[in-house]
Amino acid sequence: MLRFALTLLLFTLAFGVLSSSPVFSDLILAKVDRRIDLTSQIVRITTSLKVENAGSNPISEILLSFPENQAKHLAYLTATLNEGKGKGKASSGAGLPTEVVIPKDVPDSLTFYSVSLHKGLGKGESLLLDVLAVFTHALEPFPEKISQADIQLLLFQDTAHFLSPYKVMVQSVAVKLPEARVESYTKLEGTKLSGSELKYGPFHNIPPFSYLPIIIHFENNQPFAVAEELVREIEISHWGNVQVTEHYNLFHGGAKSKGEFSRLDYQARPYVRGASAFRRLVARLPPRAHSVYYRDEIGNISTSSLWGDSKKTELEIEPRYPLFGGWRTAFTIGYGLPLRDFLFESDGKRFLNFSFGSPINELVIDTLIVKVVLPEGSKDISASVPFPVKQWQETKFSHLDLVGRPVVVLEKNNVVPEHNEHFQVYYKFNSLSMLTEPLMLIFGFFFLFVACIVYMHADLSISKSSASYLAKVQWEEVQATVQQIHNIISHCLTAHDKLEASLRDLSRTGDVQACKATRKSVDSLLKGVSKDLKPLVTFLQSSPQAAHILPKVEELIAKERDLQERLMAKHTTVVDCYEKKLGGREIENRIASNQQKITSLRQEVDDLMEFIDEI
Ligand SMILES: *[C@@H]1O[C@H](CO)[C@@H](O)[C@H](O)[C@H]1NC(C)=O
Ligand SMILES: *[C@@H]1O[C@H](CO)[C@@H](O)[C@H](O)[C@H]1NC(C)=O
């Protein structure tokens, strides 16, 4: 506090010397009303001045002065002529041109802005001027560090007397504070605090460069959201879309958080939630915004909500954790907008008309970089911004680009919501260029088709072989079927062997019953087998691939059947003979003719089996 008081004292001394300087004495300020708004992290001072020309020469510029500690925080300054009748009327017309000037014989510690009047102010004439000055980082947290449970207290310092190179006849100040506690404030004669409004003055006949320090210490728990850097990329696509992507690097610019953060305390005890911590931010997007997303380094965040009407779209975003003093977070929001709302034509040029600043409410941006990505092939590019910015051009490449897209880059420090004015980027564009990419695609596909055709022709064997492949598959099926038939027949032959064996056993043991039992089991086995054969043969008959093999298979099956019948007959005869107890010779005579046939048939069947096994 002592430090401030000393600085202020020095100011007063310095200006005291200057007060007799004649340079500025032609103008007098008949009335000055100042309103200081301290309800957010951004300080806004609105001053209405009644300026009178008391000299004899017309005057075309008015000087505004700011002490060093304010000048370095000044983000935005605009002066407008108030042509309305009396107070409460809005200022009309655009802001008057203002620029920094360095008049002679003034201390370095003051910064002067010159407001140029369109029309000189003649002798004895007066005008009303409204000045809005917006400051960032002008509220000093005091104490600088607070714990999770503390409220945030801030210091604001200014002068009760309007600091001006001109004499002021009558003036007053009203300070609007947040609806919260006022810790202390400088008390001067006539100072009044009513509710959240603090009034100083009126003061009369103040000499030039008069400085009467005031300090206000008050509670303010508004979110001190400061974007250290914000990169806004606005990409124009002539196919109907403007894509906006905003990369935020945000921190809480209020009183630093000290001690350890306890999430338990934070969640369980509302009173230690950190009154100044902020949990959510609201971005006001243009109407008809679509495909809105919000993500951080980890991924998309779903705890954002979106609502809107025909005038605006509001996106409420909630970082993953509440932000306490000094904490940071980085995230990206993106959205698409209809091109026709922002792209226009005049004098054969197209131009984008877009708002400059961030859509987030009451955000302070230390460094704002706006990149406008124009369609490939844009020419004669120029930008028009209503305030000074650094400007340059880059090139961006994305898929299908041949020479890259021109990018207009605008950079500005210390940006406040007042900078959300419209800027324009003008460029010339040949509509035919728009066809470049589709043509590239068309040619791309064309060449792809040509390549396919060439490929198909060059490699016709593929299509042939695919037919032959089919044939191969069919042939394999035929082979498999034939193999199955082969297996079945060999089962049958094994059964035949069993029958023969049972007859040999019979001749040795004379056990008729055992022989009959074997016969029975072989009978049923052969019956089942003939059922299995049927579908296999049907398949071969329907398959053209099997044409050459089918006769042999059918012959094999017929021969085996014949062989089977003869074997059965032989078996029946032999068993009969045994039951009738006939002699061995007698039996041999009875089966002799059949036995010959059986032997030759067996030979034929074996040959056929060998043949079909080899296909
Ligand atoms: C996030 O969501 C947007 C829109 O839904 C989508 O375009 C983007 O690819 C998503 N990003 C991630 C990392 O999931
Ligand atoms: C840009 O848009 C704003 C808001 O719609 C409008 O007021 C302004 O006149 C436009 N500027 C130009 C140059 O068209």
TrEMBL record:
Pathway involvement of the protein, from the record: Protein modification; protein glycosylation
Residues spanning the membrane: 439-458
GO CC, alphabetical: oligosaccharyltransferase complex
Keyword terms, alphabetized: Endoplasmic reticulum, Membrane, Signal, Transmembrane, Transmembrane helix
UniProt superkingdom: Eukaryota
Membrane topology annotation: Single-pass type I membrane protein
Signal peptide residue numbers: 1-20
Single GO BP term: protein N-linked glycosylation via asparagine
Locations listed in the record: Endoplasmic reticulum membrane
Assembly and oligomerization: Component of the oligosaccharyltransferase (OST) complex.
Family: Belongs to the OST1 family.
Function statement: Subunit of the oligosaccharyl transferase (OST) complex that catalyzes the initial transfer of a defined glycan (Glc(3)Man(9)GlcNAc(2) in eukaryotes) from the lipid carrier dolichol-pyrophosphate to an asparagine residue within an Asn-X-Ser/Thr consensus motif in nascent polypeptide chains, the first step in protein N-glycosylation. N-glycosylation occurs cotranslationally and the complex associates with the Sec61 complex at the channel-forming translocon complex that mediates protein translocation across the endoplasmic reticulum (ER). All subunits are required for a maximal enzyme activity.
Protein name, as recorded: Dolichyl-diphosphooligosaccharide--protein glycosyltransferase subunit 1
